[in-house]
Design a protein that fits this description.
Blueprint lengths: L6 H6 L4 H20 L1 H18 L1 H4 L32 H37 L1 H16 L2 H12 L3 H28 L2 H8 L4 H37 L10 H8 L8 H28 L1 H5 L1
Helix pairs in contact: 2-12, 3-5, 3-12, 5-6, 5-8, 5-10, 6-8, 7-8, 8-10, 10-11, 10-12, 11-12
Length: about 300
């Protein structure tokens, strides 16, 4: 369809020049709005630097980052070969941080993608079909929100074992319910719009309307929440590793803090450096999320 009472339908139309132009113009406005958000740009640059460090960890620090390379508890810049110092066992902190960034970002990204896929699927089905299916899916969603998230994550990891895959599963299980509720609310708001009624009038199938017309309009706020889910996943992973439930064969920022907490009075940098890394990663993701919210939210874009 290339014309309807709602301009959103024109923007989503796969055929016709007007739909493509409208969609391109909308994307261009959103990109300009994002670039005008200074905090979002700063967050994107910071996040890009963290990703570069994570991707280049194997090149800058080849070999096992958990191996002992020098005397223990060398302070930062005490030896130029180890600019961030060494930990209590004599391992290079810079190598641990670089390889830890790779594991932390991978856990956050995979867990966020899994949580988003589950949440969008359940929320969209509940909103579109409604009735008893909506009730069942929403009560099922609430089951995962009864237990506090941290307790739920620690319980799942303790049962499944200290492996990185189990950490991803645990984080995804506590992260999808908010996405499902948000997707449901967004789909319900579009379900009664005029352009959806027009699609039904011309005989489009419910699946086509849901997947091609309603769901794309409901996704922008879900994408914003996805960045926050990644930030939350980083914090959950840090808590798991801090308590010693993470994979012992993988470098982790949380594990570094946990191992350095007994020496925090004499060598406070052991906890400060990975703590700063966690803070910067979460801050960057939150800034990017704020920028995406301003760019993709029509009410904020007009303001």
């Amino acid at each position: 369809m290339t014309s309807s009472a709602d301009p959103t339908l024109d923007a989503l139309a796969p055929a016709g020049a007007s739909g493509g132009k409208a969609r391109t113009k909308r994307d261009h406005r959103a990109w300009q709005q994002f670039l005008r958000h200074r905090g979002a740009v700063a967050g994107a640059v910071l996040l890009a630097l963290i990703v570069i460090v994570a991707l280049g960890a194997g090149w800058w620090y080849p070999g096992d980052p958990l191996r002992i390379v020098a005397a223990p508890e060398l302070w930062p810049f005490e030896q130029l070969q180890y600019p961030l110092g060494t930990d209590a066992l004599g391992r290079d902190i810079a190598a641990l941080l670089a390889h830890g960034a790779r594991a932390t970002l991978a856990i956050g990204l995979v867990a966020s993608l899994a949580a988003t896929a589950i949440g969008v699927s359940i929320g969209a089905m509940a909103a579109w079909w409604g009735g008893w299916l909506d009730e069942v899916l929403m009560r099922f969603t609430e089951l995962f929100q009864i237990v506090p998230n941290v307790v739920f994550v620690l319980t799942v990891v303790a049962i499944l074992g200290p492996r990185i895959e189990n950490t991803v599963i645990a984080v995804a299980l506590v992260s999808w319910p908010p996405i499902a509720r948000l997707t449901r609310a967004e789909c319900l708001s579009f379900k009664s719009r005029e352009f959806v009624q027009a699609c039904r009038t011309v005989g489009l199938s419910p699946w086509r309307i849901a997947l091609r017309e309603v769901l794309p309009n409901a996704l922008p706020p879900v994408l914003v929440m996805g960045t926050l889910v990644v930030a939350g996943a980083i914090l959950y992973e840090s808590v798991i590793a801090f308590l010693g439930l993470g994979d012992p064969n993988v470098a982790s920022w949380g594990r570094q803090i946990g191992e350095g907490r007994t020496l925090i009075r004499s060598s406070w940098y052991l906890c400060a450096e990975p703590g700063i890394a966690i803070m910067l990663a979460v801050l960057a993701l939150n800034l990017v999320g704020d920028g995406l919210n301003d760019a993709l939210n029509p009410s904020l874009r007009k303001r």
